[in-house]
Fold these 2 entries.
Entry 1:
Amino acid sequence: MIIKQAIIAACGIAALIIGGNWLLRNKPVQASPHNTVPSVTMVEAIEKVLAANPGTAAIDVNLEHVNNNLAWEVELNNDLEVYIDANTKEIVKTEQGWNLTDVPLLANWMPN
């Protein structure tokens, strides 16, 4: 009985080692259209957004994918998020951020 348990345990350990090695193996890098360098710089994107929204300030900038295109997401201090196409420098989307204190159920749970 002990020998059967030892054999089963050894098989399980071997399966884990082989499976882990297979999952963690190095994979070749493949070229992708999503790995391109944007032609619009971060500074140019910020300047475009600030020109379209006078009196605001940029507080965060990220490079993201919007509709399978690279876009700069510029978050402004008025909770507005503006997306600039990273190749054409056009504003492609704007979103208003959430203010959770406006939600009645959550207003009492938010810190002051």
Note: Residues 36-104 form a domain with the Nuclear Transport Factor 2; Chain: A, fold (CATH 3.10.450.40).
Entry 2:
Amino acid sequence: MNSELRTPNSGDSAPASSTKTETTTGTRIRNFLIALVAIALGVALFLGLKTETGSVSLESQAAASTPLEVALSNDKPTLMEFYANWCTTCQAMAKDLGELKQQYATKVNFVMLNVDNSKWLPEILNYRVDGIPHFVFLGTDGQAIAQTIGEQPRSVLEADLEALVANLPLPYTQGSGQISAFEASVLSTTTGQDDPRSHGAQVQQ
């Protein structure tokens, strides 16, 4: 009688152990998948916030920038920046530029022209903007002194601003950095060297 009782008990223990192992394995797989999804969502959220923060920073700086007509008539030197909210290079420079704008706020006009705004098409063509950010340094008379294109280190921009304020030759306008390509939406009948869109992304002085 005792052996009959032992036989069912020993037979029942094998399926229970197997079920427990399957449950543990399934739980581990599920937890691993949840962790992967959480990591992926975290990365996506971080990148999204980073881009959004850069865009907001550009918009706030543009809203606080000096109007072009004021900059051309107030007898102060000017740094004109052609930019776009979608420009990743512009976003990357936003923090440093924002700090420099505060530092030189009383000495330099900071003008920001959004290349997506057709209002600035004459300026885009005049300064031959085909890559952004595109910076134009203007003297106190509103005339262009030098231009530079692409991402610039803060130290380079600061040195150029110091020279601009002191009315000295700008030391770093021969370099160009990472740019975001840009094409003005305009139909032009000019060809050859007279076409302002025919040149490459070159720094001019």
Note: The radius of gyration is 30 Å.
